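Researcher: Here's a chain I'd like modeled. Treat it as a single chain, no partners, no ligands.
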Amino acid sequence: MLDQPKSLMPTPRSTVLEDGPAKLYRFHAATDVALVDAAPVLLVPSMINRWYVLDLRKGCSVVEAFVNAGLDVWCLDWGTPEDHDRYFTWADALARLDRMLRRVIRETGRPKVSVLGYCMGATLSSVHAALHPERYAGFVNLLGPIDFSKSGLLGLMTDPRWFDAEAVAEAGNVAPHQMQAGFKLLRPTQDLAKLVTVIDKAFDPAFREAYEALEAWAGDNIAFPAAAYTTYIEELYQQNLLVQGQHYVGGKRVDLKHITCPLLTVAADKDTICPPNAAVAINAVVGSKDTKVLAVPGGHVGAVVGSKAADKLYPALITWMKERNA
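Model: Modeled as a single isolated chain. Structure tokens:
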């Protein structure tokens, strides 16, 4: 992990479970806050980005907003994979998610959990929710791709006509710089634009704090276990099996119609990593009678930690979560 500003990860937390490199956190309010009568909330971030984008800094934190609203908040930290984790499969990831969710149920005594998945964490959570619908009080798909035929440039870059996932993963875990190179191709002028902005706002303390926090997180990426990577690219990006109901995990077919809990899908208007149509497709294929789409401004990261997130995204998520009291 890189040197980090002290302002990162401001919400107090304790580690409840360790599972290989992964950890399960439970968060605590800095001051006395009474818990509301709502299902506990499990946050599931992407496997390839550090979890604390959801608790980046004060005022820009999903975790902080939830905790201060009286929600019982938990988070799966996937941890940093080692070389031997190249054999960690997509099914292994789902089994780990299942263990974490069952631990939340055991610790809280509540029969169901509201799950918020972010990015790939939402894709994983959608699979898990379809396999174990009885454990879900609600599901939030926060900028997670479901219909990969609508995944934009990332889908084009991973087209099987010129992209071989097995060849990429043959040497082991896929390194962060390999994946980041692909993301940078989505916005090739981003680094130059960022430099211009930094020069323009160099003497603004609030901007510097926000910039340093986000840069610390953005530079703290982790590898993608090779086996899981191959499945993710081949079966989801290239074959689009999930939304078609042809994705299998451990011999079980994943049918998104089995998701019957309330569903909220959040789509960001400038998201190039998960274009809105790739995310909102889940609402048309689940079995839930209570579905909703929340459109927010910003890109894939800015929508979650940008200046407008605290005004629109966080309050909407809190209101939705408080209605889930199974």
